[in-house]
């Protein structure tokens, strides 16, 4: 078994169904904020996250599944393991060029559509408008390719990408990260953070 397979099985489930079935089964893990899940992520994969952050897993990116697993270790799991600390974003600058390298090699096209979501989220998390624009393009492409019965699922992913893009277009950064990163909020950002849906 490849070293990355236990992570992918945990993230997507070992029994691969349709995108809608996988999302229904795993969305609480992906998008829920639960201490028990964060602790499980640290217990099972914390050492791999540290290796990825130290640049020690670069060989994983030689195949699409390993590339995806490395992206998850750099982008998703730090947000769980180090939630509400600056280290939650420690893998972002490593994940972004890694994603671009894989896109250049068409690695994403060799993944299932629901798996591609967790590659493209790397750009959606970026405080960079060009990368945000690219994220929207990638999620729009996923929606265009989705089966009729999965259009709603991928439309929702695109909607979130567009919401992230609008925030970066307006502020150049995510205001909800300011407190965590020790950044001062502008008056406009403070007003924005009082609005519903301003935090992810």
Give a written overview of the molecule.
This protein has 200 residues and is mainly α. It has a single domain (5-193), classed as Tetratricopeptide repeat domain (Serine Threonine Protein Phosphatase 5, Tetratricopeptide repeat), CATH 1.25.40.10. Helices cover 66% and strands 0% of the residues. The chain has eleven helices and no strands. The longest helix is centred in the last third of the chain and has 21 residues, at 151-171. It is globular. The model has no long low-confidence stretch (mean pLDDT 96).
What is the tally of helical segments?
Answer: 11
Quantity of strands, as a count: 0
User: Mind telling me the C-alpha Rg?
Assistant: 16 Å
Total domain count: 1
The name of the CATH topology is: Serine Threonine Protein Phosphatase 5, Tetratricopeptide repeat
Question: How many strands, which pairing sense, and closed or not: the largest β-sheet?
Answer: none
CATH superfamily: Tetratricopeptide repeat domain
- Helix content, binned percent: 55-70%
Distance between the termini: 35 Å
